[in-house]
Amino acid sequence: MTKRLWRSIRGPLARSDFAQAVLARLLYGGLKFTFVTNPFAAGSHDRHEMLRSIDPGIIALWHGQHLMMPCIKPREMEMSAMISRSADAEINARVLGLVGVGLVRGSGGRPGQNIGKGGARALVELKRALDAGQWATMIADIPHGAPREAGMGIVMLARISGKPVIPVAYATSRRHVLEKSWDKTTINLPLGRAALIVGDPIHVPSDAGNALMEQKRREISDALNAATKRAYGVVDGEK
After folding, report:
1. Which range of residues forms the domain containing residue 192?
2. d(CA 75, CA 68)
3. What is the 8-class DSSP label of residue 49?
4. Main-chain dihedrals φ then ψ at residue 210, nearest 5 degrees
């Protein structure tokens, strides 16, 4: 019933600028409330310290674990983010716009594949943002691909920009996981505790060949999975 209702209204919503603007503000309000009511637990990293201690780089997130990014971003952090061209991503794009994030449309390539022209143009735009002193944000895995496995796009951006990839994970103790979604999308809930984990920077040499690029892709996947596991361990009280 819920799916049929969503499908019936999805098309009109996608075509209504006013409806999307209203939904984006409502969603951001809900995210902000969740963020404020989930104080960071002991063992969490300081997002402002990340800004001070690391030069602007490429923040890597997983699909389904990225929804709180508009609130995690420190207000003073200048950032551009790669956003899919799909209709489903439009609301996310509008929420990011509300907090001043620059939007770049495109997606990264799947493991072992080249990115398309649209993805290549998006990487060039993100490189320009990085060259201008901004941070860049990419969701590392590919829509409807293998979840929790980085694509090649984020590795290519690190190579052409000379900027490191920074694995970042956020988790809350109260959450609802959409188990039937391909990426196990996690809805963070209010009135719990939170954790932010920032992994060590991963650099990709400008002359990296195919073998090293694949090695770095796996390294990013492993580091982001480790950060995610640690974030959940902090909020769930695991030793």
Report:
1. 2-235
2. 14
3. H
4. -60, -40
For the ranges 11-15, 127-131, 198-202, the lowest mean pLDDT is seen at 11-15
Q: Could you read off the pLDDT of 174-231 as tens digits, one per residue?
A: 999 999 998 999 999 999 999 999 999 999 999 999 999 999 999 999 999 999 999 9
Q: What are phi and psi of 47, to 5 degrees?
A: -65, -30
User: Distance of CA 205 to CAs 45, 114, 216, Å?
Assistant: 27, 18, 10
How much helix, strand and coil, in percent to the nearest 5, is found in the chain? 45, 15, 40
Q: How many residues does the chain have?
A: 239
DSSP 178: -
Provide the pLDDT for residue 15. Answer: 64
Is residue 195 within 8 Å of residue 43, measured between CB atoms? yes
The token duo for 165 is 């990839």
Neighbours of 149 (CB within 10 A): 18
Q: Which residues contact 84 (CB under 8 A, 6 or more apart)?
A: 105, 106, 107, 143
**Domains contained in the chain, number:** 1
Instruction: Assess contact for 101 and 81: CB atoms under 8 A.
Output: yes
* Each residue's pLDDT tens digit, 38-74: 999 999 999 988 878 888 999 999 999 999 999 999 9
Beta bridge partners of 197: 169
* pLDDT score recorded for residue 54: 84
**CB 18: neighbour CB atoms within 10 A?**
7
